[in-house]
Amino acid sequence: MVRFRVVSFNVRSLRDDTSAVAQVLRDTDADVVCLQESPKYLRWRGKVAALARRADLLYVAGGRTTGGVAMLTAIRVGVRSVTEHRLPATPGLTRRGLLLATLTKGGATIRVGSMHLGLDAAERARHLTEITGLVDGSPPVTVLAGDVNESPSGPTWTRLAGEFIDLGAHDPTPTFSTANPRRRIDGIFVRGPARAEGYQVLDSTMVRAASDHRPVVADVVVDA
User: What is the rounded CA–CA span in Å between residue 99 and residue 80?
Assistant: First the structure.
């Protein structure tokens, strides 16, 4: 059995304390980090790569080219393939994207997607249909992680949890905001022959300095 530690973290374009973001990520000892709201303007790629270095991780892809979603991995994880997708634009709203990577570790292979759904309910529904179509045909185990911008009672989250296992379904701990935590809108979802050995929403002084979202951490165990 092989464990992949997956982290989902909306870092608010690194507008807060970047050192705190890096420290939080180091402390998680993640295999793969799915970022939302990573830098996507001036020198965006260098900023994400610099964050990866400070967190003792490697920059895989994403940023401006994927509407702000990005991915980092530990050196012990192999990256077999990466695809960047821009989701269909909605006039007047922020362009969204999806980053998919096929990852290997210890003889096991999984596909991980970093996503960030929008503020408009109709757009979220359309984009989820697009995302689930893109991950069809993936390796047996597929993980989607990101900011859903909707609570578990919402229609898009409910549909997502109907096609994937919501690893935090048993834990109502809110992920937003760090200053006034009231809503669970960030999650990690898995489909296929895998099990969760742990799920946690992090909170600390460092987390509150890092972003307005709390990071979500889950251990996904798959067969080698």
Answer: 14
